[in-house]
Each structure stands twice: as structure tokens, then as C-alpha cells.
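Bug: C-alpha cell stream looks shifted between consecutive jobs. Job 1:
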Amino acid sequence: MMNWLRVNGQSATLTLHIQPGAKKTEIAGMHGESLKIRLAAPPVDGKANAALLLFLAERLGIAKSGILLKSGQTSRHKVLEILAPPPDIRQRLLDEKTAR
């Protein structure tokens, strides 16, 4: 059972484990109960958080303003809320063919 994604009505909650300063930005599979995402951006002055929101918005085909960082501002463990998530959100996050 994957608890990293919970869809409830008009929003979805993502539980993520972030690895900043990676060679490239990509989804790296599971890390315990979280979805692991590697970010090329460094963990400095909110750059990694901004890069994370942009990456997810592009991946999900939604506006960056539709993603809220609920917790983990300065932590590798983050909880995000996706407003009006696409119906195939799980596939878009896990399927490499949907990546650009």
C-alpha cells in the first residue's frame, strides 16, 4: 500500500522525500512511505522548494499556484497539497513516459 498519495475530493496530499543537489531533477522511486524526488537545485534560499513546485506543476500539467507546501519548508521530508489534481495523478508521477 502506498501512503505517499492521498486523494480526497478536490485535492491530493503528497508525502515526499527530497534529495537536493542531485545531478538531475527526477522521480527516484520510493523511500519508505514517501515518494523520492531528486532535485538538481541546491538547498539554498528556498531554491530547492521552488524547483520542486515547478517540476511537479510541469509533470502534473497544472499551475504552480495549485501546489501548496504544507510542511517541511526546510526539511527533506515534505508534505504538499495539490489543488484540483489531474485524475491520473499517480500515473503522471510514476510513469517515466509522462516526464518531459
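Job 2, same session, no restart:
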Amino acid sequence: MIPKEILNSIRRIEIRSGKLVNEIFAGQYSSVFKGRGMEFSEVREYLPGDDIRSIDWNVTARYGKPFVKKFVEERELTVMLLVDASGSQGFGTRSKFKSELAAEIASVLAFSAIKNNDRVGMIIFTDRIEKVIRPKKGRNHILRLIREILYFKPEGKSTDIEVALEYLNELWRRKSVVFLLSDFKGRNFERAVKITSRKHDLIAVRISDPAERELPPAGLLSLEDAESGRRMLADTSDPEFKKAYLLERDNFEKNIKNLFTRSRVDQIAVSTDKPYVMPLIQFFRRREKKMAF
């Protein structure tokens, strides 16, 4: 049985997401994520001004007068949520854990998708594929996705983004919109990102916590890596240790941003200590500007 606090969290996320989708994101989503292309609908008689390239010569020959093919946009898309469930997602020093933030963002994206008649599926991963939920529509389906992110107990602890992306590429050959929600603590996934960005519309949602960006001056601290279990004693007041930590952090940030930029992958950076609404709005605005050119 699902704990009451989890059910309350799902309900809270549903209410908040529904409000945001109705007031802000549904229209932006629809304008940014178009259908797969133009789909044949019917033929009709030629009218002056019609493009002669659209003439259906078989029907024209049959009836002795010109007919043109009519096309409509094929609206329906498949949206895939790739959700990192590794040990580091259970970290959070402010109002919520990173896994809770991932659930909220996934909810907004999923409800926006189904409001536009798109299908949504999900792959939960750690250092292995933990759970696969096939793309479907409907409110109950989206609530199940939220429940899995919040309640699912993974077997793995570490992160292997390459495994998740390779599995996606093998399973879904048709181009999809893919949101990858992770803190990107894994290694050696550069090639997989580049391949996936060519096959799908890949968007990276990078989730962080302020304590990961800057250590508090708390003196001696016993630190444990949530994914490897490795422990270390660190003097967070030591200027040399702090300098080395900040340098490593800055290099990580720089490398991740450069990878996504080179791979033409859009990025959404969110943090547990800040509202996620503005980063999502900024993402949709950037996409709209890109489509205008």
C-alpha cells in the first residue's frame, strides 16, 4: 500500500501542475513542439492559386479535371521522460529532495503533453534500466508516472546515462521528444548524448542543490557519496580544500554546458532552492525564438 504522505504529494503535485499547465504552459508547449510533419488528408478539386506540385495526377487522369492533395499537420507526438533515480537524487538541503523536484517538473511536462493529445512514457534508470512505462495518454497514466518517481525503490545506486540513452535509442526508433532529468553525475555519456540528439529532440533538465555548489563553512564534516558509498572527512573551513572543491565544481559545470551546446541539446537548469517555473518559461521562450528563424 502506498503511504499516505506519498498520496498527498501526488495530489499536491497534480493540483499545482494542472494550474501551471492551464495558465502558462499548455499554449507554449503546443507552439514549441509541433507534430511529426504533414499527413495526407484528402483530395479536392484544383482551385486557382493552388501549388501545381500538389496535383494528384492519378485522380486528375481518372476524372478528367485537376485535383490536388490536401495535407494536415500530424499533431500527435511521443514524449519520453528519462528520470534518474540514482542515490544522489535523494539529496536535498532546502525545501525538497532532487527526486521531488524531478517529479514536479515531469508532471508539468506530462500534463502539458496530454493536454495537446500527445503520448507520454517514462524510463527510470540508475546504473541500469530500472523501470519502463510505455507511452500512453490520460490523467491516470500521468498520475502513475508521478507515483513511480516518488515511490519507486531502485536496485542501483550509481548513474549510467549512457545505458539509459542507448536503451531509448534501441526501443524507440521513431523521433520523440525526450526530457532527460538528472544531475548528470555519471561518466562517459558524451557519445550517447550526441547520438540521441540526432535521433530525437533531446532536452536536458539539470537538477541541483545549493549545497552541491558551495560547501558551508562548518569545519570538519563527514561526507558520504550517495552513489558510491565512499566516505571522507573534510575540513570545509580550509581555504585550500574549498578552492579545490570549487574548481572541480566549476569544471563539471563547464564541461556539461559545453557538451550540450556542442550536441545542440537544449538545457533547463533547476535547483531545489528556487521555483522551477521561470526556468521552464525561459526554455519555451528560447525554443520559440529559435523556431522563428
